[in-house]
Each structure stands twice: as C-alpha cells, then as structure tokens.
Amino acid sequence: MIAALDRLAGLLLDGDAGADDHRLDVFDPTTGEAIAAIATSSVDDCLAAVEAASHAARGWADAPPRERGEILRRCYETMMAEQAEIATLLQLENGKPMAEALGEVAYAADFFRWFSEEAVRIAGEVRRSPIGDKRIMVLPEPVGVSLQITPWNFPAAMPVRKIAPALAAGCTTVVKPAPATPLTAYCVAELMGRCGVPEGVVNLVLPEPPNEATVAMLAHRAVRKVSFTGSIAVGKHLLRLAADRVLRTSMELGGNAPFVVLADADLDVAVRSAVAAKMRNTGATCVAPNRLYVHERIAHDFTEALSAAMAGLAVGYDRQPDAEVGALISPGERDKVAGLVSGAVDGGAKVVTGGRAPDGGGYFYEPTVLADVAPDAPILAGEIFGPVAPVVRFSDEARAVEMANDTDAGLIAYVMSGDMGHGLAIGEQLDAGMVAVNRGIISDASAPFGGVKESGIGREGGFEGIEEYLERKYVATDW
Ligand code: SIN
Q1: Is 70 noted as a catalytic residue in this protein?
Q2: pTM here?
Q3: Is 82 a catalytic residue?
Q4: Which of 175, 251, 411, 450 could be stapled to 457 by a disulfide with Cβ–Cβ 3.0 to 4.6 Å?
C-alpha cells in the first residue's frame, strides 16, 4: 500500500462496495489497471460542501493574515517533507514519470510558500480626492466562497495553485478535482488539515458526472467566484453559468502554443527548449508547443536534432523508475493523438521519429516528430496534448508571426533566437499572455500564469495571483 493512499483509507471503497452510481474507479494509466475506488459526491453533498465553506468564511476572513500565512507555510514544509510519498501517489494515478511527479510536488508546494508570503502583504490604499475634500480608502476584502475546478494533468499543482491564493486572501473554497486523478487532491487536502487549515475552509467534492452538481453549486448564493483550468469549451460553459450570477471568474483555458525558431537560433538551445517544453508531462500541458515554425535555413538540422533527442527519451513502460516519458491519461487521449498523427500523415507530413502507439498495457504514445507539415494541417488547429512535435517551415519572419497568431488561443508562445533583442522583438508581436525567449519551461509560482484571447481570464501565481481572490471596497471618509 502506498503511504499517501493509506491516509485516504476512510475515503476509499473496498472491493465491490459502492458498486453503483456513487463509485469512481481510478486507473494507473501506465498499466490500465484500477488502483483504487473512491466514493463520488451527490448534488446534496456538493451543496453541503458549499454550506460548509460559507460557514467557515467569516472566521477565515477574520483570521490574522500572519496566521493564515503560517498555516500555508506549514503546508509548504509538510508537502516537501512528504514529497516522495505524494509523488508516488500522483504518478500512480496520472502516469507521469517519477522525476516529473517529484518536480510537480515541489512546484505545487511552491505555491503554498509563495502565497504564505503574500498573505501578509495584501495592501489597501488611502488617497485624497482631487478636490481635496475627502479621503478615499480602498480596502482589500476576500471575494468569498470560491468553486475551483482542476484538471488531471497536474493533480497536485493545479489544485494548490488555486487553493493557496484563495486561502491567503481569506477565501474559503470548494474544490472539484478531475475524476481521473482525484487521489492526489484528497491527499493534499488531508495534509492541509494536519497543517492547521480549519474545518470547512477547503472542501473537496467529486460529483460524477459533474455538470448537474456544478450548476447547482454555481447557483448557490454563497458562491462568489469560479476558477477553472481546463478546456476552452468547458470554460465557456462555466462562463455562461457564471454570467447568470455575475460571479468573479478566473479561467485558465487551452493553448495552441507556437514555437518559433528564427534563422539565428542557437540549435542546441532551441532543441533543448523544444524537448523540455514539448515533453513535459508527455505533452499533456496547455503550454506545450503545438506548432513548431522553423526557419528554412535551419529546419533540416533542427528537425534531425530534435528527432534524435526525442527518440533517445526513455519511455516509462512497466513503471520504469528512470523513465522520461509517461503515459497519456486514457485510451481515448492516446487514440486522439494517434488520429491527429495519421491525419497529418495523410495530408503529406513525414514521420521522422515515433508515430506509433506501442502494443501492450498502458496508454503510451511514442515521442514523435513530424516534418513537412502543411501550414493548414488540422493537427495545428488545436491542442495535441501528447508527445508529438509537428514542424512547419517558414522563410519569412512576418509570415511566421502571422501563422503563430492565427489562432483563437493565446496562452504562450516560444521564440528561439541567438540575438536576444531579435527574440524579444518577435516576442512582442506574438499574441500570448506569456512568451518564452530561449526557454522551454516557464512555470513558476512567482510568475503570473495566464493567457489572452480564448485562453483565459486572469492570472495564477505571482503578485497577480492573490488579486483574483480580492475585492476592493471603497470607503469614503471625511477626516
Ligand atoms: C497547464 O495548465 O497545462 C500547465 C500548467 C503549468 O505549467 O503550470
């Protein structure tokens, strides 16, 4: 038994227990085997969680910021002390390699640390009115009860990236983790209880199917905010529901990241960055490069070097401890990736490496590089969410920028150039909430993560992250 799973003993179902509508089996994507079963939440359970968050709201908002900060700091320290244990559970339900699971737990813990420091730095403002007859006080206040809906690709980091700023700001939350990977979120919630987070401040629910309960929770008067990470389609659905109640929203939705390799790029840096960005979480991230636009002068060398690097990665069959490539989350995701690749090949793309879902258990797909991809190929139109790098050549930079911006998504764009000024100048022309110049990994608890256009609303992390959970109250005074 995995130690972290032991802690969830009260939540897990044995054998056939709950073998009805209220049971959710959780699978190991590297083998396809069920690893645990957990009870799902009814609509009433979800509304009870909202009530609990509502009852706890006043006390938590009134708790001294230092106290809130110290509890979050303890969460950071405990999470790091239990890093290996949590990573083992995370890996089991998500299928990412152990090194990445450990990295994700550290990344998640860092949001606790960052927001423990932010909890005591929430500032208001006092101004004099222009006429000079009064003082304008602007007081920060917690938004209130937040519903936070998180995806399966980062089962620890995405819940913590939402919970930590909410708690730092004095909000209470109801968290709905992804049904494919709920165990890590429950494990983090259990840890938070041990670190002193009071009852009712963080409430987990697992409604399955989720829509009816989500609609009911968002209709509850106590809920004042919804924060979601996931697809653009679901984000739009939640925004429509939020509009009915004029809720605050934070939306971290899909991307379709361009990765532009300019003619003056340093080949090693470009390849290293492409592999790091593309292969993190086996390509299942919204920040993964989806479309690699490479200047024709270096396209051949880049494609060869990228293919060699991708082909050399160790795929994690049979839970190999030193694996560098994990499994996709489900057979459906693997088949979707396979379908995109075969569609691209039918359209004239060439498989330079990979291009296959290996036989055997687990939902793996080989690291794949496609060359000669047509600029209008369907594989470039949306998130691949798998280990596939389609390379498109360009000869004219203006055209590369045009192709890069030709999407409704605008989360992140990558630019590779040996001349920083050149890279930054191109970066300024790219429509994205984040730009990486000569870097493959940008995620950082101290940086504002988020997109423009349909990629989302708001920012997570950084100084901006806590603002998502604060209202500003104007108090007019006459001293
Ligand atoms: C994602 O949402 O897929 C990426 C998350 C991150 O890098 O923080």
Answers
A1: no
A2: 0.97
A3: no
A4: 251
